[in-house]
Design a protein that fits this description.
By secondary structure, the chain is an alpha/beta fold. It folds into 2 domains: 233 residues, NAD(P)-binding Rossmann-like Domain (Rossmann fold, 3-Layer(aba) Sandwich), CATH 3.40.50.720; 207 residues, Rossmann fold. It is built from 14 helices and 15 strands. Strands 3-2-1-4-5-6-7-8 form an 8-stranded mixed sheet, with helices on both faces. Strands 10-9-13-14-15 form a 5-stranded parallel sheet, with helices on one face. The protein has a two-stranded antiparallel sheet with strand order 11-12. The longest helix is centred in the middle third of the chain and has 32 residues. The site of nicotinamide-adenine-dinucleotide has 26 residues, from helix 5.
């Protein structure tokens, strides 16, 4: 192995390596803090000036990351800087530190760069690779010998080798092209965190890593191994990219299946929740998934489409993905049908009814509304003439169809004034007994009221 390999391995081992994380969102920020906790000097880079300013002010914008952790990482900056000069590197474990900036020039000083930018879909539901390409080009312009580059953004199999690698190799080295595996190192490692989750975090969720060459894998494993409990090496970046897509396609397909089972149970006149509860007593071969008003978040609705798109370029139709998407994206319409039927039983029309949506975040106990089915519910109900408001303890304001809505006050008067209350997201903060006591009609899409005795409201479940 060459000297670049030896240099970066030594810097990682001694914590002398400067780690840069590009993209400081739900994925990038927890990762930054994991590297800081492992003793590295970390430089976060993001295009978003407000995020950078908030980090530098010691604030957090990710709900499950306390500001105190950001502030501690920021404050360690001076301490860590002075330690590096006075203490023999590698002899003791330094405390890490964090700085954040919008200036990509800092990448020239970075030994390792981890890219965590978004991978959305464009209007035609194809992968929008603009953020990955733009971040890669920004890294490529500052690529230097001995650098490790890792892509963490979820993407289709082949991205690291087909999109990232050629850009790094072609624009590197100021006229002296750098060679992967010898001069610089490149890997893909998918982020698997589940925001809001306390038992499995970035640090104790095993990290799958695929390197372009064996030395790329070793360097990436050394970096992640110093911050994360367990690394799982695979044979290539393409395999690592596919691992992530299998995991999230597995979820999307099973959610699609259970959503269809909910529709079947409704036709058959039975309670899908009771069926699932009983089925999950089987100790093997069954894993419970739960129906709901649709799919949300930046991952499950989007990631399988990356895989389907890639297969489409190879003339293969990803049928499970297509079918699951069809069922899952239809769920908000199904729920609106339930609301209409429930109102009809009370001789009311959707048109003119007052409907309150409880929870607009895509899942419980987070403030993220990306792709949230609650936004679809609001849109559909409004388009049928309902007077729609929402409450969410984690989302003070939400934009639906270009119109900003504010979370309504949640009190007895509000609930009593509603023709229908729709439980869309079962945040722990809600007291369901109280909600039912003061409401007339509740459509519960999450089985949130399962433990509440009948106490006033008529409850219609999914
Ligand atoms: N959110 C999750 O639960 C989750 C979990 C696993 C994997 N992922 C994947 O991780 C990636 C990031 O997701 P996220 O939820 O953190 O997104 P995010 O939108 O919360 O954060 C991305 C950040 O990147 C910044 N950014 C965009 N383009 C940039 C550029 N060219 N240079 C520098 N910064 C740029 C944005 O300003 C933003 O702060 C996606 O590929 C996503 O699919 C997300």
């Amino acid at each position: 192995m060459g000297s670049n390999y030896g240099d970066i391995m030594r810097k990682i081992e001694s914590r002398e390596a400067v780690v840069s994380v590009v993209g400081l969102g739900y994925v990038g920020l927890p990762l930054v803090l994991a590297f800081v906790d492992a003793g590295f000097r970390v430089v976060g880079v993001d295009l978003d000036e407000s995020k950078v300013a908030r980090l530098n002010a010691g604030e957090s914008y990710v709900s499950d990351i306390p500001a105190s952790r950001v502030a501690a990482a920021m404050n360690a900056r001076t301490a860590a800087g002075s330690k590096t000069s006075s203490v023999a590197v590698g002899k003791i474990r330094q405390s890490g530190s964090l700085t954040a900036t919008t200036e990509f020039e800092v990448l020239r000083q970075a030994d390792a760069v981890v890219v965590c930018v978004p991978t959305p879909l464009n209007k035609t539901k194809d992968p929008d690779m603009t953020p990955v390409i733009s971040a890669t080009d920004d890294v490529a312009r500052r690529l230097h010998a001995g650098m490790l580059v890792v892509l963490e953004s979820t993407t289709y199999p082949g991205t690291t080798q087909e999109v990232v690698l050629p850009r790094l190799e072609s624009s590197s080295g100021n006229g002296h092209p750098l060679k992967v595996g010898e001069d610089f190192f490149l890997a893909f490692s998918p982020e698997r965190i589940d925001p809001g989750r306390k038992d499995y975090t970035v640090v104790n969720t095993p990290k799958v890593i695929g390197g372009v060459t064996p030395s790329c894998l070793e360097v990436a494993q050394a970096l992640y191994g110093s911050a994360i409990h367990r690394t799982v090496p695979v044979s290539s970046p393409k395999v690592a990219e596919m691992v992530k897509l299998l995991e999230n396609t597995f979820r999307a397909v099973n959610i699609g299946l259970v959503n269809e089972v909910a529709i079947m149970c409704d036709r058959l006149g039975m309670d899908v929740w009771e069926v699932i509860e009983a089925a999950k007593t089987k100790p093997f071969g069954f894993m419970p998934f739960y129906p709901g008003p649709g799919l949300g978040g930046h991952c499950i609705p989007i990631d399988p489409q990356y895989l389907a798109w890639k297969l489409q370029t190879l003339n293969y139709d990803a049928r499970f993905i297509r079918l699951a998407a069809e069922i899952n994206f239809e769920m908000p319409h199904y729920v609106v049908g339930k609301v209409a039927a429930a109102l009809n039983e009370e001789r009311k029309a959707v048109n003119g009814s007052k409907v309150l949506i409880l929870g607009v975040a895509y899942k419980a106990d987070v403030g993220d509304v990306r792709e949230s089915p609650s936004l679809d519910l609001i849109h559909l109900l409004k388009s049928q003439g309902a007077e729609v408001s929402y409450h969410d303890p984690h989302v003070p304001e939400a934009v639906v169809d270009g119109v900003a809505m504010r979370s309504a006050a949640l009190d007895e008067t509000t609930l009593r004034g509603m023709d229908c209350v729709v439980i869309a997201t079962a945040h722990k903060a809600y007291d369901w007994d109280w909600v039912l006591k003061h409401s007339r009609l509740v459509v519960d899409t999450r089985n949130a009221t399962k433990a509440v005795a009948e106490n006033g409201a008529r409850v219609v479940k999914l």
